[in-house]
Design brief:
Blueprint (H helix, E strand, L loop, with lengths): L6 H6 L1 E3 L3 H25 L1 H7 L2 H14 L2 H6 L3 H10 L4 H11 L15 H25 L6 H30 L2 H9 L1 E3 H7 L6
Antiparallel strand pairs: 1-2
């Protein structure tokens, strides 16, 4: 790739945030999660069910999308950058507790919310959505293979699956809303890099 001299300042002002593998893991996971949410809505909202029809086909798409949901993450484990970021998401430090306390107090000053590559809110979200997805997968399998479990298990699994699905929908809406409010964070997921100014402002402990 040929770079002009004028490009140097622009490149120097950018910071590498995500590898190509990490971006594809996020995209495919988001796609599968979106399919699960949309098909679930078509199954449980009467107006959508009547509009879409073909319930059996919607059920099959929902089941297979849910079954495939862990695949991108498992494939991503082949990437060293992805494994490294999983380790960061799984570690909480003193600065994360400061961040959470500030968030609860609605203190939006950047100095009050110290963060590494991922802030405490992102870590909590990642842990919660990963656990919720595993519960959804387990309860979904119980509902799918009805002959393998007793009726009480299937009834309980259906209850948990339905209510957790509603909770996931609400949390995902919040996640998308926050992403829409941060164009630079979205650019990082789209291109892999973010502005140095944004990184120093929003993630002051990153790259120290």
């Amino acid at each position: 790739m040929n770079l002009r001299v004028d490009d140097a300042p622009a490149l120097a002002s950018r910071v590498r945030r995500f590898s190509r593998a990490e971006r594809w893991v996020h995209r495919v996971t988001a796609l599968l999660m979106g399919v699960c949410v949309v098909t679930a809505a078509c199954l449980y909202v009467p107006q959508l069910a009547e509009l879409v029809g073909r319930r059996e086909l919607v059920v099959r798409i929902h089941e297979w999308a849910g079954l495939a949901l862990p695949v991108p993450v498992l494939a991503g484990l082949a990437s060293r950058a992805f494994r490294s970021d999983l380790g960061r998401l799984n570690r909480f430090g003193p600065h994360d507790r400061v961040w959470l306390r500030s968030a609860l107090r609605r203190d939006k000053r950047h100095s009050a919310r110290p963060a590494g590559k991922f802030n405490a809110g992102q870590k909590v979200y990642a842990s919660w959505i990963a656990g919720a997805s595993l519960v959804m997968l387990g309860t979904g399998l119980i509902m799918w293979f009805t002959h393998l479990t007793p009726l009480m298990w299937r009834t309980s699994a259906t209850f948990v699956h339905d209510w957790l699905a509603l909770t996931i929908g609400i949390v995902l809406a919040g996640h998308i809303g926050m992403a829409l409010g941060d164009p630079e964070a979205r650019r990082g997921l789209r291109t892999g890099s973010v502005s140095r100014e944004w990184a120093e402002r929003e993630h002051s402990l990153w790259r120290r």
